[in-house]
Amino acid sequence: MSQDHTRAPCPWRILEDFGGAFSMGVVGSGIWNFASGFMNAPKGKRLAGSLNAMKTHAPIRGGQFAAWGGLYSAFDCTLMQIRGKEDPWNAIMSGALAGGVIQARKGWSAILVSAFAGGLILGVIEGVGIAINRAMSGMHAPVAPMLPETAHATA
User: What is the pLDDT of residues 94-125, one digit of tens each?
Assistant: First the structure.
């Protein structure tokens, strides 16, 4: 069983990912809503409109990100324990399961669409990560030493 030793062990990983996802959602949403509030506020009240939009919407989006991140980590840890290995399939299945659970109140069609989207997004992320790792591993291969050019004698 290959483990990623750079991350916290599973029970703590879930809490760590809750906090990380919340922070990412708040910061990203804060920037987005600050700009949106600035553009939509009347002239003379743009700064106040920006700050109001940011204060109103950023914590909500942060909570949504935290819910998804926590579910994703919980499913990832569970699948890792059940399957006995840590591989890209755990991440893909965890993304699909988290996406489906988030949409559970909206019915089966929303569950299936969100689960497909979550699995697809995580599949792309994992695929790009694998491609980058393969490309980078070739950069560290030993290079054959360059031989000095032989002197050409002119006769």
Answer: 999 999 999 999 999 999 999 999 999 999 99
The pTM is what? Answer: 0.75
- Could you tell me how far CA 26 lies from the centroid of its own chain? 15
One-letter amino acid for residue 10 of the chain: C
pLDDT at 104: 93
Residues in the chain: 155
Angle at the Cα of 149 from the Cα atoms of 147 and 155, rounded to 5 degrees: 150
Q: Is 106 helix (H, G, I), strand (E, B) or coil?
A: helix
Q: Is 140 exposed, middle or buried (0-12, 13-18, 19+ CB in 10 A)?
A: exposed
d(CA 66, CA 17): 8
Q: Are residues 61 and 100 in contact, defined by beta-carbon separation less than 8 angstroms?
A: no
3-state SS, residue 95 = helix
CA angle 50, 52, 55 (to 5 degrees): 110
